Amino acid sequence: MDGQLGDFLASAGVVVFYLLVWTLVFAGTALFLGVFIPFITGDSLLFGAGLVAASTSSLNIVVLAVGVGIAAFLGDQVGFLLGRRYGRGYLDRRGGRRTRLAIVKTESFYLKYGWWAVVVARFMPWARVFVPVVAGVGRMNYYKFLSSNLVGALAWGVGITLTGYYAAAIPGVKSAAYIIAGFFITASIVFGLRTWLADRAQTRHDAGATTGSHNTLGG
Fold first, then answer.
1. Dist CA 8 CA 186 (whole Å)
2. How confident is the model at residue 111 (pLDDT cuts 50, 70, 90)?
């Protein structure tokens, strides 16, 4: 990712580079782009942008990181307002069976973790897209969402961009840059997998309880 971003920077220039990164981060949640290309709008994009900023003096890491944080914040705000305005039907129109299953899983995740779901979802590709909208559909208190969205945008957007930058800028750390990037991406996948397995276990438990209830009634 950082190689492709570096080539793009060389051909398009600094301003267009900033705008591309910020637009992709915003569109990842506001326009549901993250459903189709999660790795181009997610962790690898931010980490790669940080690496590129460390390798060229033309990019200002403060401008880049602050812009990413703002774009991430605004993207979730748009998703939340869309969910609040158009409701569950808006989600149901977002795609096919796979997308609808992801929405159901996200609703369960949101109900379990509430305020923290908005923060933690930033690091989970599937949840990052749908949690803001689900929070809007669920009529989450606007100011609670505002605070959780701000914390998530800072931790994920600014945090991972700066991690990529310092991984390449600090002597002795540069060689470990890709290991650090792999850690963030792997952690996102592992957390998502653990949540999925927990949800499956809960579903089996509920199904078993329902079957047992029917058998008792039938007896």
1. 26
2. confident
